[in-house]
Amino acid sequence: MACVRQFLCFLLIILMTPLLTTFAAATSNISLPGCPNKCGSILIPYPFGMGNGCDRKGFEITCDESMTHPRAILFRDVHPSMDVELINVNITTGEARVYNKNISYKCFDVTNSNFNISMGITGLPWRFPFSYEQNKFLAIGCSTLAFIVSYRNDNYFSGCVSTCFSPNSTTGDGGSCNGMGCCQAAIPSDLYFYAVYWHDNPNYAGGFNLCSYAVLVEDDWYKFQDQDLQGLNFYKRNKNGVPVVLNWAIRDNGTCQDGLMKSHNTACRSNHSFCYSTSNGKGYLCQCRQGYEGNPYLTGGCIDIDECKSLDKYPCSSNAICINSDGNFTCSCPKGTYGNPYVNDGNCIKIPEKFSYHGRVVLASILGVATILILVILAVMYVQRKKRMEEKEEYQKYYQMMNDHLRVFSRKQLENATNNFNETNVFGAGGQGKVYKGLLENNLVIAIKKARAVEETQREEFVNEIILLSQINHKNIVRLLGCCLEVNIPMLVYEFVPNGTVYQLLHRNKTIPISLGTRLNIAWESAVALDYIHSSISRSIIHGDIKSANILLDADYTVKVSDFGASSVVPVDEIIELVHFSQGYLDPECLYTQIITNNSDVYSFGVVILELLTRKEAVYLDKKGEKQALATSFLSKARTNEHHKMLDVDLLSNNGKVIEILDKICAIASQCLSPKGDDRPTMSQIVEELQKLARLHNSTLGF
Ligand SMILES: *[C@@H]1O[C@H](CO)[C@@H](O)[C@H](O)[C@H]1NC(C)=O
Ligand SMILES: *[C@@H]1O[C@H](CO)[C@@H](O)[C@H](O)[C@H]1NC(C)=O
Ligand SMILES: *[C@@H]1O[C@H](CO)[C@@H](O)[C@H](O)[C@H]1NC(C)=O
Ligand SMILES: *[C@@H]1O[C@H](CO)[C@@H](O)[C@H](O)[C@H]1NC(C)=O
Ligand SMILES: *[C@@H]1O[C@H](CO)[C@@H](O)[C@H](O)[C@H]1NC(C)=O
Ligand SMILES: *[C@@H]1O[C@H](CO)[C@@H](O)[C@H](O)[C@H]1NC(C)=O
Ligand SMILES: *[C@@H]1O[C@H](CO)[C@@H](O)[C@H](O)[C@H]1NC(C)=O
Ligand SMILES: *[C@@H]1O[C@H](CO)[C@@H](O)[C@H](O)[C@H]1NC(C)=O
Predict the structure, then answer these.
(1) pLDDT digits (tens, 9 = 90+) for 420-464
(2) Residue span of the signal peptide, if any (predicted)?
(3) Cβ 636 under 6 angstroms from ligand 2
């Protein structure tokens, strides 16, 4: 029994839930918490408000309940004579509809042919301009010429004429105001204040029309009636005023720039709101973002629209699954159906389970498509195979070209030499990839390195470059022995240099002292290699990636510069990236010219000299743990003649000759690091200087 009752209760809750939530959604607050949101039947949304602290400054409304029905009064805070009665407020459009009681009239007195006139100066306290889109200046009468004049708006002056010679020559009941019984004229923007003037016309249209009227009124509100031409009918009928639309907006210091609020004192308090500038008068309005509705002027005022509950505005098929989310919704066909769910009338169609006629058609088309797909794949494979054959033939051609000049290794040979490119054979890794140590059958030790991927158009160029590099035969340059072309990315085979790099020598174990002589020798031999490559070959080759890690040392500490021609075998932008990788060596001039020159090598070489002198890395951590570029900090110290403090303590000595040598090397380094490439010495000049210093060193210290 209890069980059944519980079940009924449960059922009741389930049935009630949608009702409860609908109710909650319909009554979201429009006013500040604790403030009345209605005056009589008129809704008062914030920024409008009644009572202390309920409105934003300038939007105060007084609810006058002294009459039979409560009236919402605007501008009472300015002066009681400014009272304007509110009809309604629209928070989305920034419009307020109010009663305009100042209907101007001009009435003839038949007996003495005098006339009474009301000029009707109408002005609002400069807060809300009349809407130029929603209002028209209206005049009614049969011998009527009325003007609207605004002194503020460049003396704006506009009017209209209405004439009728007999009661049945008017536009007729419900007709448009085209000048027969009534006429209308547009008004300008920024109109806060206007006066009505009558043409001083003593003629009147016989006895049937004694009074003419003129008023600013909401467009489309007035429908002409013949009886309005008689007596004071129109005036009496609209004693309470006629509707006119005002444009309200937030007009304080905060400015709005198309959605971005420049002031944190924004009136758009809701998180899901934005602002936009108004076209009538300076100021801005707020609006809820798409998917939200409510009052953007209130904190938390914009509330997610539950689109699934208003399918008339947000279509979603009744047999689809509608899921509301914050600011959006999704509508999808359930499993087993297909179609466009964003349509209201059952657009998710069941996919047939059995192979009905329909199903067979679908299956047949699927099979058809699959067959075509397979054919396409076969065709692509054929084309690729053909291309590969062509490539192979092309390789044969280049193989021949290369084989005449250097050794071309097969892939198999290199695999055998490196134990299938085993990780244990990796002995170095740079920006370009891994370097493998290998052992050929004749016990020759080699180093294998990947070149860059070569594009077809550049293949010949590449091959020529490799041939050129292989012709370099210098004792201070790592020799390129050969190449393997059989793989997509060609491999370069070099002689193996056993004793590590200058980088390792300088930075690995700083407790091992290195003599000035050794350092001078490394600098000199490196310079010799660079000079040779820059100047003594048929065509100058730029190294492009000089750094201590690219200067190798042979068994007897003979220098072997490696990685020559990086600039020609690797594209320039890649180098800049790569050299960025080996930070601290990049010629700053390169960064904007994007061209690598001999001078760039000289700059990088300058950094290597500094490394030799200071045993600091090109980018090192200073005592505070901050990253410093060696070149920059050295140059700035040199400017105040404090650069000696950066030198390796092992080098410091009281010997006058040593001091002279160190001074001169520092000077060379400084010249190499000149910001302008053209100010730097050439490699030949550097070789000459270093050679002199080496000789001086050897003669005085008997090296
Ligand atoms: C505002 O709404 C909440 C719930 O939506 C309600 O509890 C509260 O009384 C409302 N406040 C006013 C002033 O209407
Ligand atoms: C405000 O104006 C818009 C556009 O004319 C209209 O869709 C909306 O219903 C109006 N809102 C109120 C509360 O009158
Ligand atoms: C003009 O005004 C006077 C005094 O206010 C009034 O007696 C007279 O009836 C008015 N005439 C017309 C035609 O309204
Ligand atoms: C209507 O006209 C009267 C007299 O010209 C003026 O005192 C009053 O301020 C006007 N009312 C409005 C709302 O402009
Ligand atoms: C105006 O209508 C009256 C009847 O209502 C008719 O007698 C008269 O001839 C009409 N006048 C004109 C100018 O059409
Ligand atoms: C407008 O600016 C003035 C001075 O810059 C400031 O005193 C005042 O509070 C500001 N008003 C608003 C509504 O931000
Ligand atoms: C509005 O956003 C702020 C910051 O993103 C957040 O702290 C606050 O809770 C949000 N308020 C509402 C009503 O969602
Ligand atoms: C709502 O979601 C749809 C698809 O999920 C997306 O295309 C659309 O931009 C979203 N709308 C908003 C306002 O986020």
Answers:
(1) 888 888 877 655 567 888 888 888 888 888 766 666 666 676 777
(2) 1-26
(3) no
Structural class in CATH, domain 309-350: mainly beta
Reported as type and span, the H/E element at residue 528 is helix 516-535
Residues of the chain with CATH 3.30.200.20: 391-496
- CATH 3.40.50.10860 matches 391-496: no
For the chain, how long is the longest CA-to-CA vector?
140
Which of the residues 531, 545, 587, 601 is marked catalytic?
Answer: 545
Instruction: Show the ligand 7 pocket: residues with CB < 6 angstroms.
Output: 271, 299-300
| CATH 2.10.25 residue ranges for the chain | 309-350
CATH number assigned to the domain covering 500-703 = 1.10.510.10
The pairs formed by 595-601 with CB atoms below 8 angstroms and a separation of 24 or more are: 596/542, 596/544, 596/567, 596/572, 597/542, 597/677, 598/534, 598/540, 598/542, 598/682, 598/683, 599/677, 599/678, 599/680, 600/542, 600/544, 600/677, 601/530, 601/534, 601/542, 601/543, 601/544, 601/546, 601/683
- Residue 678: active-site member: no
pTM, two decimal places:
0.52
Two structure tokens written together for 359: 């199903």
Q: What is d(CA 177, CA 327) in angstroms, rounded to the nearest whole number? A: 45
Whether residue 216 has its Cβ less than 6 Å from ligand 4: no
